[in-house]
Amino acid sequence: MNQTDKPHQQASTLWSSRMAFILAAAGSAVGLGNIWKFPYITGENGGGAFVLVYLACIALIGIPVLIAETMIGRRGGRSPIGTMRHLTASEGTSRGWRAIGWNGVIASFLVLSFYSVIGGWSLVYIGKTAFGAFTGVDADAVGGQFGALLASPVQLLIWHSVFMAIVIFIVGRGIRGGLEKAVKLLMPILFVLLIVMVIYAMTTAGFSEGVNFLFSPDFSKLTTAGVLTALGHAAFTLSIGIGVLMAYGSYLPPNVNIAQTAISIAILDVAVALLAGLAIFPLVFANALEPGSGPGLIFVTLPLAFGQMPGGIFFGTLFFALLLVAAVTSAISMLEPVVEWLEEHKGANRFKSALFGGLAIWFIGIGTVLSFNIWDDVHPLSFIAAFEGQTVFDLLDFLVSNLMMPLGGLAIALFAGWAMQRARLPEDIGLQGAVYDGFMFVLRYVTPAGIAVVFLYNLI
Once rounded to an integer, what is the mean pLDDT over residues 105-123? Predict the structure, then answer.
């Protein structure tokens, strides 16, 4: 019997409680996508109407795949690759479904390679804000500081390295000693920091305008592209389709109700995104800035706001500390599928697996570092019209976000909804009767259709 035939059985390799798993999975879902991406895409797509569509998509796409992927992981009890190898044999399905496991591990590997570089930016901005780099400066100066950071391969490499070292250290300490301890500490800190930022936002002149922007829907501002953006962000904000939930689910005790747990995770994820919006948009409006300023909202627009407001140094530092915590909780989940596979297939111990996997990811991340400066004119696939002008970073982001993640989520929905034997599914998922039937209808028809629409839209 080889390593891949052995599911996780020892107590030390399982989450100690349902809450530990919820915090870990929520930590995986809560990341730069919530604090950085959600506010700026909401700003770009008109606010409240976009938020309503996003919430509907979470219910119809995000939660069903979240439930399915966690269930698959717990039933397999192994790494994503080992789980799919085991389940295709035990369920009597085609070996082709094993690609789900490989897709997940490779996708999480690639995502973390560039996610770590962006996570390093939050480390830089904690220091910049704390030492008053943005106090009293104008928009050109703030933008210039961000541009100078991107133009420096040495700075980016240093902070990419520091961020990856933090992630490797946490994951290398194991499930209970590393991942669980980290999320039990970091997730409450994240919520406290968010709430403090929202309370501060309530004292600004732009709070009522920010609330109206976020929660008063104006459907005249919502475009077809905006709907598809909401659909895509909802599908992938919960870390579905990249093996993370399958890996985390493999450590889930059998007595935990997956459906109830998945809903709790989704609620926490949405709560963080909305709280981030409540913290950010009042500051933007109070300083007469542009809510639809795109990816620069966090690293250009907000530093400008912090530099102009009373207490900006303290609250700006607090905000970027929040961003760092969110980035770390997501990053540790992305390293886990790689580490779990190395433990199973290579027989390496936990720390060596984390170190080897983390160093490999760090090395690939150098390509992203250089994409912003030395290699900014290197376009590997420029001979293909669709990829003309795309850097190494752009290609990695496109490969994972537009191909691997949606295909992974689609395959998980189809495998759980159509290929797996249905006798045990109600018990495994934790739903019964009409509720289970309704869930299966959504998983088998609505969810795949929604993901397919996003996938095709991203390719056009």
Answer: 95
Closest CA to 448 of 60, 54, 52, 53: 60
SS (H, E, C) 274-330: HHHHHHHHHHHHHCCCCCCCCCHHHHHHHHHHHHHCCCHHHHHHHHHHHHHHHHHHH
- Residue 352 CA to residue 342 CA, distance in Å, equals 9
φ and ψ of 380, to 5 deg: -55, -30
Q: Is residue 253 a contact partner of residue 11, using CB atoms and an 8 Å limit?
A: no
Give the helix/strand (H/E) hosting 200: helix 181-202
Entry pTM? 0.91
Nearest one of 363, 271, 212 to 22, comparing CA atoms:
271
CATH number at residue 293: 1.10.4160
Render 65-111 in DSSP notation, one character per residue. Answer: HHHHHHHHHHHH-S-HHHHHHHHHHHTT--GGGGHHHHHHHHHHHHH
Q: Is the pLDDT of residue 1 over 50?
A: no
Task: Compute the half-sphere exposure of residue 93: CA atoms within 13 Å on the CB side of its CA.
Answer: 21
Torsion sign over Cα 321, 323, 329, 335? negative
Angle at 277 between CA 124 and CA 205, to 5 degrees: 95
Residue 234: domain span = 3-459
Q: Which of 342, 414, 353, 261 is nearest to 79 (CA)?
A: 342
12 DSSP 8-state letter = G
Q: Give the model confidence (pLDDT) of 224-262 as tens digits.
A: 888 888 887 886 678 888 899 999 999 998 889 999 999
pLDDT (tens digit, 9 = 90+) per residue, 174-203?
Answer: 888 888 899 898 889 988 888 998 998 899
Closest CA relative to residue 31, chosen from 85, 111, 110: 111
CA angle 36, 291, 388 (to 5 degrees): 65
Helices (H) and strands (E) in the chain, counts: 23, 0
The total of structural domains in the chain comes to 1
CB-CB contact of 331 with 239 (8 Å): no
